[in-house]
Design goal:
By secondary structure, this protein is an alpha+beta fold. It has helices spanning about 1-5, 15-20, 25-35, 55-80, 125-130, 135-140, 150-160, 195-200, 200-225, and strands at about 40-45, 50, 85-90, 95-100, 115-120, 160-165, 170-180, 185-195. The longest helix has 30 residues, at about 55-80.
């Protein structure tokens, strides 16, 4: 741990590691090399020790778990409030993945099983996950998309998106962004159901509830960061 702590402030040569940690030179070397084998430590172009890629992977995993722990009860409340299925989506490469869901108990359901990958070219969650990306990424994604740049501008302005029969015929949805620490959009919360219930203006019915749910999750993530 003292080797990792020492590297937190930046790259260090073996001599610097010895100096910072107070460990004997052979011990510091042995530990750094063992950590390197596990990808917890890596070397930069000058051969100095730096923090390794495994730490980033672990940090993503803890963020994912924390997001799910916070989001699950909020999705249940959102489902009870809107009487529609609620989902949480994260972007993964060129797809969006449903990472959590609260299903409607009965009646016509728009079931999106947890773990399913959906395209980024249709649906209100795709609009939300795309709207705050950089312009190059947006341009690429808009080729063959069921929505336009103007749609995304509107999504950014009002902080929610709606879609009617975009991804699947007869299904409508409303989504809002979840911001992680640093304000970056890391996920989208959605409600979806048949057009007969959600109408052709689903945002009018459910935008407020979906925005409130997204803000509750974002706030809890930020508070957790603050306390951490």
């Amino acid at each position: 741990m003292s080797v990792l702590d020492a590297l937190e402030s930046g790259p260090a040569s073996l001599a610097q590691l010895v100096q910072i940690t107070g460990l004997a030179r052979p011990t510091a070397h042995r530990l750094a090399v063992a950590l390197e084998r596990h990808r917890m430590v890596a070397r930069d172009s000058q051969g100095r020790f730096v923090l390794g890629p495994r730490l980033g992977e672990l940090s993503v995993a803890t963020g994912e778990d924390r997001l799910l722990a916070i989001a699950n009860p909020v999705l249940l409340q959102l489902r009870d409030l809107t009487q529609e299925s609620a989902q949480l989506y994260r972007r993964q490469g060129d797809a969006r993945v449903c990472v959590a869901a609260a299903e409607r108990a009965s009646g016509l359901r728009d079931t999106v099983p947890v773990g399913s990958e959906l395209p980024m070219n249709a649906g209100s969650a795709a609009q939300v996950l795309l709207a705050w990306e950089d312009s190059d990424r947006i341009r690429r994604a808009l080729r063959g998309a069921h929505f336009t740049a103007a749609t995304l501008t509107q999504v950014r302005r009002r902080r929610w998106a709606q879609s009617v029969g975009e991804r699947e015929q007869g299904v409508a949805s409303v989504s809002a962004p979840i911001a992680g620490p640093g304000g970056r959009v890391i996920a989208a919360v959605s409600v979806s159901g048949p057009i007969e219930r959600l109408t052709r203006s689903p945002g009018r019915l459910h935008a407020q509830a979906v925005i409130a749910a997204a803000e509750r999750i974002s706030e809890a993530l930020h508070n957790h960061e603050g306390n951490g």
